[in-house]
From TrEMBL:
Protein's recorded name: Enoyl reductase (ER) domain-containing protein
Keyword Oxidoreductase: yes
InterPro entries membership: ADH-like_N, ER, GroES-like_sf, NAD(P)-bd_dom_sf, QOR-like
Top-level taxonomy: Eukaryota, Sar, Stramenopiles, Ochrophyta, Bolidophyceae
Matching SUPFAM superfamilies: GroES-like (SSF50129), NAD(P)-binding Rossmann-fold domains (SSF51735)
Pfam families referenced in this protein's UniProt entry, alphabetically: ADH_N, ADH_zinc_N_2
Species of provenance: Triparma verrucosa
Length: 378
């Protein structure tokens, strides 16, 4: 028999932003009462029916609640994370079958379990996060193996922020560079004023690397708080989510900072605007880690370009660095540990009501965010 629960929550008042939205900083959840209930048949969900701009995210008020199979749980979402990869799916850059519920990062309370999930230790009422497709909704079916328990003292909003951006930053700074950088050597991280690379800069420092961050003038104050050894401050590109990489000779500055050696690893989520800069900033036998396309996709280039410094290049994705539950938990345990001991500071910028789904994508793509952007699914 499926177990079902509805939780009544006590929420601390959230500060209002100038835009009228609310910032869910340090949200805490406490279960004050519980009762069995029948899961609704339909729900609200932000659905993409065809590729296009942010307005293709359509709120459906009577979308079917998914039925769960044994080994899955049903999560009643409180928050869903908004990530650049979601915009790539919406635009069709990374093709999906239509229609689909947007998102792949959520957090909330377990509303239903199955025998296999219960055998794995997951209970109705557990506070959890996850990364599977379909998080822009009130309910998401999640395989038990993808569930991450949220420790006491960590809010659901912060925990939800960890799943894609935090886990991505973790694998980028621990494994994607294939061990070609050692503590005490230089790492260049582009766009440290944004979500994922705020995490990456702090994690790189925790690993003992020396960090150069690029950042726009409008986000310089955010970047200064991350502990980067050096910052390269760039002009802004109005209405864009990335900096003006033609406003400063970044390669020249990198070589000045590193005494002509260059960086053993470059973490690059910008894409088209930075590919030449990233390759040019490498040290001998350094690695260019290209993980995003904020300014456009990286074009194909001849491998012979890498010969000047016998360089390496990789284009990784999160799924290949969370291949089983053991790897997933090892990453999340370290991230949550860093959050609790203060090694990591997470900035939740703002949340948008799920009913206003297009606004969340527009805000992220505008470059205005200085931290994690969420949907409030409650």
């Amino acid at each position: 028999m499926l177990s079902r629960l509805i939780a009544t929550t006590s929420l601390r008042t959230r500060p209002a932003l100038s835009s009228g939205r609310t910032a869910p900083f340090n949200l805490t959840l406490s279960t004050t009462s519980a009762r069995l209930f029948s899961t609704p048949v339909t729900q609200r969900a932000a659905v993409v029916h065809e590729a296009g701009d942010a307005d293709q995210l359509k709120l459906e008020s009577a979308w079917p609640v998914p039925k769960i199979a044994d080994g899955q749980v049903l999560v009643r979402n409180e928050f869903a994370g908004i990530n650049f990869i979601d915009t790539y799916h919406r635009k069709g850059l990374y093709p999906r079958d239509f229609p689909f519920i947007g998102g792949q990062e959520g957090g909330g309370v377990v509303a239903e379990t199955t025998p296999q999930a219960e055998a794995a230790g997951i209970k109705v009422g557990d506070r959890v996060t996850y990364s599977v497709f379909g998080s822009y909704a009130e309910y998401t079916a999640v395989p038990a193996g993808k569930i991450l328990p949220v420790p006491d003292g960590v809010g659901i909003d912060v925990a939800t922020s960890c799943v894609v951006q935090g886990m991505t930053a973790h694998y980028l700074t621990t494994d994607a560079h294939a061990g070609l950088i050692k503590p005490g050597e230089w790492m260049l991280i582009h766009g440290v004023g944004g979500g994922t690379c705020q995490w990456a800069a702090q994690m790189a420092k925790a690993r003992g690397y020396k960090v150069i961050g690029t950042v726009s003038k409008g986000k310089e104050s955010v970047a200064r708080a991350l502990g980067c050894d050096e910052l390269i401050v760039l002009d802004e590109v109005p209405g864009a989510s990335y900096e003006d990489y033609e406003s400063v000779d970044v390669v020249k500055r990198v070589m000045e900072i590193t005494d002509g050696v260059g960086c053993k690893a470059v973490i690059d989520g910008i894409g088209l605007s930075t590919v030449d800069i990233s390759i040019g900033s490498l040290a001998r036998r350094g690695i260019f880690v290209s993980f995003g396309n904020a300014s456009g996709a990286v074009p194909a280039f001849p491998v012979l370009r890498l010969i000047a410094k016998s360089a390496f290049v990789t284009r990784p994705k999160l799924l290949d660095y969370t291949v089983d539950r053991a790897e997933l938990l090892s990453r999340s345990d370290e991230i949550f540990g860093w959050l609790k001991d203060g090694t990591l500071k997470v900035a939740v910028d703002t949340s948008f009501p799920l009913d206003n789904a297009p606004d969340g994508h527009k805000y992220l793509e505008s470059g205005a965010s200085k931290g994690k952007v969420l949907y409030d699914c409650k």
